[in-house]
Write a structure and sequence with these properties.
Elements lengths: L7 E3 L5 E3 L8 H7 L11 H19 L2 E3 L5 E5 L2 E3 L1 H13 L7 E5 L5 H12 L10 H5 L26 E4 L8 H4 L2 E6 L2 H15 L9 H9 L8 H14 L4 E5 H6 L1 H11 L6 H6 L1 H8 L2 H5 L2 H5 L1 E4 L3 E4 L18 H15 L11
Parallel strand pairs: 6-7, 6-8, 8-9
Antiparallel strand pairs: 1-2, 3-4, 4-5, 10-11
Helix pairs in contact: 2-3
Amino acid sequence: MYFYSELLTADKKGSFVPKTLCLRLSYDFFIMSTSPPLITKPESKEDADYNKICEEYKHLIETVPNGNGWMEKHLYSYNGFWFHPNYIKNHLLLPIYFKSQPTDIFLASFMKAGTTWLKALMFATINRHRYTISDHYLLQHGPQGAFPYLDIESYPPTDFTHLPAPRMFATHYPRTLLPPCITSCKFVYVCRDPKDVLISKWHFMSNQRSKDLPPFSLDEAFELFCQGISDFGPFWEHVLSYWRASLESPDKILFLKYEEMMKQPEVALRNLAAFMGKPFTAEELEKGVVEKIVELCSFENLSNLEVNKKGVVKFGKVFEVENRLFFRKGEIGDWKNYLSVEMKQRIDEITNEKFKGSGLILDATT
Ligand code: A3P
């Protein structure tokens, strides 16, 4: 089962580390395995709200359309996007477990568009006065635990209030599904060529796929991806939800492209720092701090760390991912090793059609 919850707590320096797993058993487990629900006596208003939402969620899952899943049997259509059921439940729970603060900064992305890289860069930039490069938090813990996913169920709610500002959160939810108190905060969005996203996601999901399901062919992944049926998909609508918002509020959303960042990481990092309200000073530029952070967060450096070769990150109460799976090749254009000419053309046509008139041009590889 795919629980994408992550229970984290802050260490002395305000960095996130996994905390002892909550003893409360997952409600998902109950509703999937038994009925009626075991919780009958709400202990508080929050518990009552939680139980109500779980009922609503259960009803939704039974009624909304489903399609073939990548890791589990099904994905479910919810508000125009496709989700693993846990994310639907998490979305319903969001208002009771998360309260934003005006200084919060969010990292938003479609899965496999460069989230891990951006997490590292944002964390290292905001915390550059706390750590030396040679004794950096990222070297010990890797980027995954640097800050939490908003999309992760946190019930009973995790207390994030003590975290130093600006707090940072990552999310894969499309912009249109986020409440105004969150969308009024600053967002960094990273976008990537959908062909590379597809290949990266296919590898990742194949690895995480339930052993009860038959192997997941690239042909099937391709077909589903083109139809928009993949976790948080359709890819194009996801990207457009942030792209359009970035045009409306450029001071609130920094729209980044993975390919541009790969080509000029120092330029991207300087823009990122300025956007987050922590521009590099002339002295820092002089001392090469930008280059040092870029190097610290490079694919080569991060992927070779012990923690990223052997460690695991826990998402939720029972689901773990090996850190190494977040570091595969880190290249532009790996799709060329997998997609036929016809497949490439089909994705490019969809991209051109969907982005027509939006002003968004992806630095697609030919
Ligand atoms: P590939 O599978 O194409 O190699 P996400 O972090 O959103 O899950 O995305 C994972 C993708 O980003 C993977 O792409 C991974 O290798 C790549 N990646 C991870 N860390 C990176 C880094 N520091 N620099 C560039 N790419 C990175």
